[in-house]
Amino acid sequence: MNNTLFIDKYTPKILNKFYLPTDIRNSLNVLIQSDCLNTLLVGGMGTGKTSILHSIVKEYYSGIEEKIYMQNVLYINNLHEQGINYYRSEVKTFCQTHSFVKGKKKIIMIDDIDEINEQSQQVFRNCIDKYSHNVCFLSTCTNGQKVIESIQSRLTIIKLPIIDPTIMYQVLEEIIQTENIIIDNRAKDFIVSISNNTIKNVINYLEKCKLLNKDITYDIALSICSDIDLYTFEQYTEYIKSGNLKHAINIIYKIVNEGYSVMDILDNYFMFIKTTDKLTETDKYKIIPFICKYITAFHEIHENDIELPLFTNNIMKVLQ
User: Fold this and answer.
1) 20-159: CATH, from 3.40.630.30, 3.30.70.1350, 3.30.420.380, 3.40.50.300
2) How confident is the model at residue 244 (pLDDT cuts 50, 70, 90)?
3) What is the pTM of this model?
4) Measured on CA atoms in the order 260, 263, 267, 272, is the torsion positive or negative?
5) How high is the mean pLDDT of the chain?
6) 158 φ/ψ angles, rounded to the nearest 5 degrees
7) Can you name the CATH fold of 230-319?
8) What is the C-alpha separation between 138 and 314, in angstroms, rounded?
9) Where are the domains of the chain?
10) Rounded Cα distance, 256 and 264, in Å
């Protein structure tokens, strides 16, 4: 039995395996071959920015063992929250040392550079000016407007398109054929619809289907491809539509008592609203702003389950 995770098995490792427009793929290949990799990949969530970044590094050091060329790479992820002193000292030290690979530059990979403060971005701009003869600078961002102009002007900017739904279906079909997963068409549509245009989500959902080791119907997909059983949300919504506030609140608190946070509940209810056929598009249009409002409030101010009855009451007013 192969114990490799689907995400490792089906995430592309080379550029030709990514579902990229031909012009973007050709541009990246030219940059690799010309040894001019100072590049900024701009794209939304799920466009594959980080995976593409790693594949660029792999192809740049083609023919060299990973354990050797990784000594030549400094990977910086904004989530680590390194301070300005890290950027000034560690990055400078890395840039000043010679490459471990003959004929190749060192590489600094910066994920989510738009989340790094302006002062730290200025440090990178200085490094680009001073060390480009020895180091390539590869970075990604979601919002290009948050990247200072002096960095943008020094990097080749490549904008990645949103993944088209037809590509999502293509990936899904390739995996179910390879893994011999039997899944009905309605379940396929559901999996794609809740994936948020992210191939990784499709891959993870299909791994759940594979582990279940049975024919996957829509009802089964509904139960395994969401953190909270979507049938519970169907019942919750029906009570709201019928004006039964007490029973609706009881259901939402039942979910809380199962260990889910308020944010978990709102995120999953948002997914349910987008995919359900129990509500008209007009009703969905009315509900979604309230969900977004509460998610924003809980994220920025506080998270308290006492707000859930108020949320439920507001949704009931909207639908009546």
Assistant:
1) 3.40.50.300
2) very high
3) 0.78
4) positive
5) 89
6) -125, 120
7) Zinc Finger, Delta Prime; domain 3 (1.20.272)
8) 46
9) 20-159, 165-224, 230-319
10) 9
Distance CA 219, CA 212 (A): 13
Model confidence pLDDT, tens digit, residues 150-205: 999 999 999 999 998 899 999 999 999 999 999 999 999 989 988 888 899 999 99
Beta bridge mates, 137:
108
Residue among 133, 147, 138, 150 at smallest CA distance from 58: 138
Strands (E), 49-126: 73-77, 106-111
| 177-189 tens-digit pLDDT | 999 999 999 999 9
What is the DSSP-derived secondary structure letter of residue 69?
H
Half-sphere CA count of 96, side-chain side, radius 13 A? 6
Q: Does domain 165-224 have CATH number 1.10.8.60?
A: yes
Residues 6+ apart with CB under 8 A from 287: 273, 279, 315, 318, 319
Give the integer Cα–Cα distance in Å for 96 and 46. Answer: 34
- Answer with the residue of higher pLDDT: 83 or 35: 35
**d(Cα 87, Cα 291) in Å, to the nearest integer?**
39
Query: Long-range contacts of range 166-173, CB-CB < 8 Å, 24 or more positions apart?
Result: 167/19, 167/199, 168/192, 168/195, 168/197, 168/199, 168/202, 170/19, 171/10, 171/19, 171/199, 171/202, 171/203, 172/202, 172/206
How far from 51 is each of 14, 123, 195, 201, 248, CA to CA, in Å? 9, 25, 18, 14, 42
190 close to 202: Cβ distance less than 8 angstroms: no
Residue partners of 45: CB distance under 8 A and separation at least 6: 142, 196, 198
Q: Give the confidence band of 304 by pLDDT, cuts at 50, 70, 90.
A: confident
